[in-house]
Amino acid sequence: MSKRIFELAVPKGNVSPLCEICGNKATTKCDICRVTHYCTQDHKLIDSISFHKKVCKKLADIRSEHSIPFSEADRIADAKALLQSKQDVLKLAETVSKKWLLERKAMNAYPSAMIAWNMSREMRSEDSSEVIYPTCLVSEMFLRLGDISAAEQYMVQASWISQKYDVLPHSILSKLYRIRGLVFMALKNWEQARTAFAEFAYAVASEYGIADVRLGIPYGLLGLSLLKFDNIDGAMANFHKMADKWLDNLLSQYEVTIMRAATETEMAADEEIQELEFQFMEAKIVFELMYEMVRNLEMNDVTDLINFKILCFQVLAEMREGRPQAVIVYKEEALATATRTKQDKAVPEKRIPVLMKILGGDYLYLWERKHNRPRTIATKYLERIKAINV
C-alpha cells in the first residue's frame, strides 16, 4: 500500500502510543478520555473538530482496562455493553465521515473514516463483508484528499473482500460499485468506470426499485462516463432520468411545504431521513458535474433542455437550503435557458404547474414577447396550466 495505516486503538502496555490521525509517534493525548493520542496539537484539534468530541466518553470506556467480573452473568453483561459501545461508535463514525465527505471536507473525514475501518475489522474480521463499506469510505476519503493511489488500494481491497462471497446484499454492492466508479473516473479509466456505474445503477434499482429517487445519482454518474465515449444520446438519456427524479422529489416537497434540510437530530433519529439527506447532498455534486460537462458541448435544443432541468433543480435546492440570493441567480439563468429551447418535456407533466409557479409564468411570457420567441417551452407550459385550471 502507498500508506501505512496504524490501528487507532492503543494496545495495552504499548509504551509508544501512535497518533490517531497519522500514525506517527504520539506526544500528547486527549485530556478527557486519556486513551486517544496525537503527535501534534494540530492533529489533536483536527480530531476534536471532526469527530472525537462525539465519542470521547465511549472510547474511554472501550479502550480502558476493565476489572474482571466475578460472575458469568456479569461477564456476559459487560461483553454485551462493550460490543454495543463499539457498534455505536462504528455507526456514528460511518455517518460522520460520509457527512464530511459530502460537505467536501475530506481532512475532517479522516479520523472518523479510519476509526470506522479499524473498528469494523476489530469487531468482525478483516475479510468480513461488513468491512466493505468502511473500506469504501477510507478509499473515498483518500480520493477527496487527492491521493488516488491510496484510494485505489483501498478500493481494490474492498473489491477483493467481495470476491469471497457468492452473494452480497445489494445495499453493500451499491456502495462498492459506486466507489469503484469514482476511483476509475479519477484514474480516467472510463471503460471500467462506465461498467461500475452501470452495476451501481442495477444494485440500487434492485434494492429500492426503479421509481426511487436514489436511482438518480447512478443515472447521473453513468451519464458522465458515457460522455467520455461521445455517446451523447446515452448520456443525455441518463441525465434526464436523474433530473426528472430529483425535480419530482423536490417539487413534491415544495407542494407539502417541507422545503428544508433535515436537522442533525432528525437525521440521527431516522435512518431513512439521513439517507435521503445524504442523497440530496450528493445529487448537488453530481448535478454540478453534469452542468459543467454539458456546457462544454455545443449549445442546442438538446443541451438547453438538460441545462434547464439542472437549473430548475438548483433553484429548488437553494430554496430548500434557505439562500434567496442564490435562488434569484439560478432562476434568471433557468428562464434565459427556457426561452432558447422549443422542446416540450422539460419536467414531469404533473409538476409543471408548481414549477411554473416557482419560476414565474408571467415573467416567462413577457420575456418571450420581448425577445420575439413564440411557441417556446414557456408558452407551451403556460397553455397547459391554463387548460388545467379550466
Automatic annotation (TrEMBL):
<protein>
    <submittedName>
        <fullName>Zinc finger MYND domain-containing protein 12</fullName>
    </submittedName>
</protein>
<keyword id="KW-0863">Zinc-finger</keyword>
<dbReference type="GO" id="GO:0008270">
    <property type="term" value="F:zinc ion binding"/>
</dbReference>
<keyword id="KW-0479">Metal-binding</keyword>
<feature type="domain" description="MYND-type">
    <location>
        <begin position="19"/>
        <end position="56"/>
    </location>
</feature>
<dbReference type="InterPro" id="IPR011990">
    <property type="entry name" value="TPR-like_helical_dom_sf"/>
</dbReference>
<dbReference type="InterPro" id="IPR053248">
    <property type="entry name" value="Zinc_finger_MYND_domain"/>
</dbReference>
<keyword id="KW-0862">Zinc</keyword>
<dbReference type="InterPro" id="IPR002893">
    <property type="entry name" value="Znf_MYND"/>
</dbReference>
<dbReference type="Pfam" id="PF01753">
    <property type="entry name" value="zf-MYND"/>
</dbReference>
